Write the structure tokens for this entry.
Amino acid sequence: MTLLTVLERTTTYLEGRGIPSPKFEAQLLLAHVLEMDRLQLFMQFERPLSEAELASLREPVRRRGSGEPFAYISGTKEFWSLDFEVGPGVLIPRPDTETLVEQAKAFCDDGEFFVADICAGSGCVGIALASENPELKLYATEASPEALAYLKRNIAKHDLSTRAAALRGDLLGPIPTSRPIDVVVSNPPYIARQELAGLDVARHEPGMALDGGPDGLDIYRRLIPDAARRARRAVLVEIGHDQGEAVAELFRRAGLTEVRVVKDLAQNDRVVVGQST
Ligand SMILES: C[S@@+](CC[C@H](N)C(=O)[O-])C[C@H]1O[C@@H](n2cnc3c(N)ncnc32)[C@H](O)[C@@H]1O
């Protein structure tokens, strides 16, 4: 069977399983399994695939057909032009979260600087910030043991072991109060529990990364007062598109100043920023 025939059959299979953009997804899967990029794939359409290559395709195609995200199958996801290791048990970094990094970057000057990335997951937010400032020191906290394993792997992958600590525990709890923190950033779970059941994302990505309690605000209520007390400079959190006002009010009540709600590229409210006085 030629590569083109396999591509067509994979596309038809994925289409039948209701996977959006089946042709593109089939190309991604083949390129991943054959360890080539999509351009190389197009240039080798007539190449016959060996039995071994066909066999190694079956499981990834079956997984994608069951709805599992491609990033879990390939094991990596790009964020902030960096590669992050991901897999079942950790949230796949989303492009929207780059808005949080962009806003936080403005507070992370050159020079020694301490950032706490709370609910760090894969570590994409803190590691992206550390990639921008070679003197930035990072504390990244994470409650889930599965996600913590990816966080540690990504810290090592990006050569940050001497200036980043992956700490297991609840919110800011694992960071000793004696340690300085300049900026707190967080992309916590913020989806209202009753909305979660209907969402496709909840079928494969961990509930603990998504479930924000009855109204989605549970973590913000606990995190923001503590973050406001500890951050010397600023607190920034990602939010759901309809949570801007409620979270901005929590910022103001915690004593943060110059509170702003920032939109993402799709013009949805995405980040709340507040400064410590
Ligand atoms: C929405 S995900 C964000 C992950 C990552 N920061 C990102 O932007 O892709 C939230 C993360 O918070 C973790 N988490 C949930 N509750 C937590 C808590 N109380 N303390 C620390 N981490 C928590 C989850 O396991 C999950 O990895």
Summary: Residues 1 and 167 are 50 Å apart (CA to CA).
